[in-house]
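Bench notes, afternoon.
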Amino acid sequence: MAVMPGVAYRPINYDSVDRMARYDVVCLHTIVGHDPAPAAHFSVGAGGEITQNRDTVYQSAANYTGNYRVIAIETEDMGPEFGSWNVNDGHAVPAWTDAQCEAIARILVWCHRTHGVPLSMAPNSCPASRGVGYHRMGIDGNWAGYAYGGRVAGCEVWTRSPGKVCPGDRRIRQLIERVLPRAGALVAPGGGVRNVMHQEPLLGSDGGYISRTLPMAVGSNSGCYSRVWLSIAGDLEVRATVWFQGGPNPAQYVDQVIANDDRWYREIPSGTESVIIHAASTGSMGLMLEGQPK
């Protein structure tokens, strides 16, 4: 079960709903109406209220051919907070409220910690893309006059309705300029910005045992890593053993208990050639490596 703590959980009937195959993208939508929108995993009201209608173990019905790998967030756009606007004018979609921006950032952080979705913009709707996106990325249409375009040829189609502007230029700009930076600040110690060089989910929502060796040449930034992070989601208690091997120093290890939707980090000793992680959990567990580019 993968339900965000502290939200209003109002589950649909899952009898005919497929499970997620993987977690690559969190996609932002606008409802053109009031929340909640049960086709998505999450809905965010004007006042920042978060409703979760779908456990993220299961697919949404909001991203068409991308449903198998996309977590969907719908956002309210009707009511006194938004004023009156013409729903037939794609340029008129109002901006998110301050409370919505904060709530969306919190959902992004939860998806990042729980499912390993990167806190960076996805480039497009292609199957290999990862990160945070917006619905228009997977929509065909005439985007002349709009600040942001739509589907790249050959990428996934995320709607049965071509021409939708979802979620609107104002909201896309807020996502890029305000919401994502806020999400980054929420996961960083002391509110600073952490440079995540590599990340991956270690265990899914069903948990299990993991033994993972990470050479410090992982990814494209060999030798640049400074911290290893582990995170869990939910009411869990996990004991992890992390070894640092190689280099001029003797092998070092640390036993650590991580509990209750928390995260933990350890500085990587200079000269370390590999990090070895042993852990058991009854729920989701994620890994990040922090560092600086060469």
